[in-house]
Design brief:
alpha/beta
Amino acid sequence: MTAETSEQDPITVFLVDDHGLFRSGVRAELERAVPDVTVVGEAGSVDEAVAAIRHLRPAVVLLDVHMPDGGGAEVLRRIRPELPDVVFLALSVSDAAEDVIAVIRAGARGYVTKTISGRELADAVRRVHSGDAVFSPRLAGFVLDVFSDRPGAAPHTDPELDMLTPRERDVLRLLARGYAYKEIAGELFISVKTVETHVSSVLRKTQMSNRYELSRWASDRRLV
């Protein structure tokens, strides 16, 4: 294959996310506007993703961070040693430092949030495929901090945050930004009742009494 031919070949992309509607939207955005990026498959669970990636061997995997059966880090753990040439780009609603660091340590080449536009996402796919590391702007700083050796670098873990589940952190982050329960439910594709359950759990674990105290607590830990 000549270099000219290689440059013209589409970048094959595989989508991993447990929300089918979101996968459909990403696929439509990429296929409608970006001729040099081709979506070759998708999966909604870790096991399904691992099997399909092994079979299809895409160039780039767009990987959700939180899924019920283990999430993006588990896909990376099972696939990267076997297929080191496959490039992973995390695509998540979460912009929490601990989520970003976890998947980067597991081997993802970049991390962008779901607020990204279709064209921006396509550009991120091209860049990680060409060897660049790609991050949404506000995420790059603490990634550099954590992976640098300079004094004052951000801590790798926060014991107080570790007591919350990933989904509880997602709910807390949106709550601290002023979202109503119904808006949080819509953003995270869960029921209002589930949001209430998560908020009650976070209040209990943090020993806070209301959402205003939780907002300050979240802000102090750079979750907002």
